[in-house]
Amino acid sequence: MKEREGIIVGGGVCLLLLAWMGFFFHSSPRFAGSAVGAAFGIAGAVLMLFPLAYPVAKRIPFLHARMTKHVSMPTLLALHIYAGVLGPILAIIHTGHKYESHLGIALTAIMLLVVVSGFVLRYLLTYVGHEISDKLVLLQTARGDLDSAWGVLENAPVEMRALPRAPLVVAGLASLGLDLSSGGPAGEVMRIAESVADLEYAIRTDELFKRWFARSLKLHIVLSVILYVLLSLHIWAGIHFGLRWFS
Ligand code: HEM
User: Which domain holds residue 161?
Assistant: First the structure.
């Protein structure tokens, strides 16, 4: 279920980023103010209010009880995610790729960052978490194999001499595809030790990504507050200057 959601949402995020990059090829300065452009803007802004239901239900106990009587939290989160991608797509169409005012540029940039940080939070963080657990299982097995291969080697002193005198150089060459380790128990120990080292390195890299991605919730919340402030200013400016233009 989550896989299908990931594919749909991932596709939506790619579409959003591609649509945004359309400004390299196209710009329609009058579209945002036209009837169709305004309809896209209004629909996008309304859809961007839907994601609020999730944090409201999550953080306000009184509303949590009332809202979850009718809709479950996972459903609210799904609504949060789908509306959080669809609203920005409509908003990008509304811009007609006219990025001239500071407010318009900031609003578009923050909106894209909210979506991307939400995507990282939902999918990449979970993905890296799974990767780490899978690799930890492999590492445990590889360490067990290394212990038994070492045990075999300890009982064969003649084979022990086959261990390279400069293991770092051998490992460095092996990483370039030049395998100088001998066969037999010593070669087996070297081969498994390299796999253990590779796995440990990969896990440390994944943990680094996990630490970065883990900050994405705070970033996502701060950016979404800025988004709503900028969106309110944009709507206020639209009504204020739009109505003045009519009079
Ligand atoms: C207009 C767009 C969006 C806004 C304004 C927004 C806002 C927020 C806010 C305020 C929270 C904090 C919830 C809390 O109180 O902890 C949140 C959480 C979250 N958002 Fe968004 N979001 C948007 C779009 C997205 C998108 C597109 C995704 C995914 C692709 C996403 C994924 C998430 C996830 C996974 C959480 C954390 C859920 C949890 O663990 O409780 N959001 N969002």
Answer: 131-209
